[in-house]
């Protein structure tokens, strides 16, 4: 018996063929187009496909597909100075009239005099002192508004681009690839947790509840009849080096299966993640491209990378070369 060929059946067949073509295209489409073909790109794709394929001996259920990714130097530029440090410098100048004692007190005096080298010569201790002085006493909304104003116009001191344009295009693609495969992606940053939370969703598609970072103590208060959270002049967590696994334990509650960093401050995080049971992947972003970004590692005061480069390969961590593994660095190069 021959069934009549109707326009409806033709349309249904066409839709079925089109759907099949879309599925085939989706499987063939390159999820990391800004990454150079090579062993590192292949390792990333193979790892994701292996842990997400039902029936695979290395299949990982969605509840345990957790990725921990550093921010400064891993998702966006950190040279010549951490962007949060640039915010600190601006805020010191903004509120200096309220602190006449800063005219003679270091490191504030040097900031106000424009001598940044001297102001920052105190290293992490100086940055911490500036952080406490400029953050403590602010409510959550006051701090958020201040950071948003800063990021709306702050420009990179070398490129002149907005700081928010200094993200890495290959990493944006990797974030999308992981999220498309039902990974829960967390930012685990040495920077301030509240600072990163302001822009994490807009820049990376990562909601604030998936940000782990350094933090000050906080206190619940009533101000002007309203309940608020107020930053205190004391440290809750320094989310760097050994503090990163602690932050992961405290805020995530499960050991991730994938970790990406760029400096020795990320060593303990990668060590903690990659020594767990089951399939694991660790990656280090190596800043070795002086033409398109910066070239620095062992001798840098910011993003110093010595131990991760020495021990990483022995531990199976992939060393991602910006120069060799990335076709472009920032999104505008893609246009």
TrEMBL record:
Its cofactor is Mg(2+). This is phosphoserine phosphatase. Gene3D superfamilies: HAD superfamily/HAD-like. It catalyses: O-phospho-L-serine + H2O = L-serine + phosphate; O-phospho-D-serine + H2O = D-serine + phosphate. It comes from Oceanipulchritudo coccoides. PANTHER family: PHOSPHOSERINE PHOSPHATASE (PTHR43344). Keywords: Amino-acid biosynthesis, Hydrolase, Magnesium, Metal-binding, Serine biosynthesis. InterPro entries: HAD-like_SerB, HAD-like_sf, HAD_sf. Its EC number is 3.1.3.3. GO terms for cellular component: cytoplasm. It comes from the Bacteria. GO terms for molecular function: L-phosphoserine phosphatase activity; magnesium ion binding. It holds the Pfam family HAD. One of its GO terms (biological process) is L-serine biosynthetic process. Coiled coil: none annotated. Pathway: Amino-acid biosynthesis; L-serine biosynthesis; L-serine from 3-phospho-D-glycerate: step 3/3. The keyword Ribosomal protein does not apply.
């Amino acid at each position: 018996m021959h069934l009549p060929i109707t326009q409806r059946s033709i349309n249904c067949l066409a839709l079925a063929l089109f759907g099949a073509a879309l599925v085939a295209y989706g499987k063939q489409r390159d999820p990391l187009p800004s990454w150079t073909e090579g062993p590192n790109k292949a390792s990333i794709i193979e790892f994701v496909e292996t842990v997400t394929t039902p029936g695979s001996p290395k299949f990982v259920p969605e509840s345990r597909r957790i990725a921990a990714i550093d921010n400064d130097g891993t998702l966006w530029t950190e040279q010549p100075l951490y962007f949060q440090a640039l915010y600190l410098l601006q805020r010191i100048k903004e509120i200096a009239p309220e602190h006449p004692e800063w005219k003679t007190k270091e490191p504030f005096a040097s900031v106000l005099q424009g001598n940044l080298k001297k102001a920052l010569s105190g290293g992490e201790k100086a940055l911490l002192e500036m952080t406490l002085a400029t953050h403590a006493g602010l409510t959550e909304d006051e701090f958020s508004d201040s950071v948003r104003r800063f990021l709306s116009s702050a420009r990179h001191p070398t490129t002149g681009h907005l700081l928010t344009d200094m993200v890495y295009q290959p990493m944006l693609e990797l974030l999308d690839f992981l999220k498309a495969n039902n990974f829960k992606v967390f930012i685990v940053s040495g920077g301030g947790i509240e600072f990163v939370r302001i822009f994490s969703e807009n820049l990376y598609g990562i909601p604030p509840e998936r940000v782990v970072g350094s933090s000050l103590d906080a206190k619940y208060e009533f101000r002007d009849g309203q309940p608020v959270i107020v930053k205190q002049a004391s440290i809750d967590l320094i989310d760097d080096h050994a503090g990163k696994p602690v932050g992961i334990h405290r805020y995530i509650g499960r050991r991730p299966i994938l970790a990406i960093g760029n400096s020795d401050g990320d060593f303990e995080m990668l060590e903690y993640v990659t020594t767990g049971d089951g399939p694991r992947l660790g990656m280090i972003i190596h800043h070795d491209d002086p033409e398109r970004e910066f070239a620095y590692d062992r001798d840098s005061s910011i993003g110093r990378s010595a131990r991760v480069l020495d021990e990483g390969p022995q531990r199976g961590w992939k060393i991602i070369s910006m120069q060799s593994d990335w076709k472009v660095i920032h999104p505008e190069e893609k246009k």
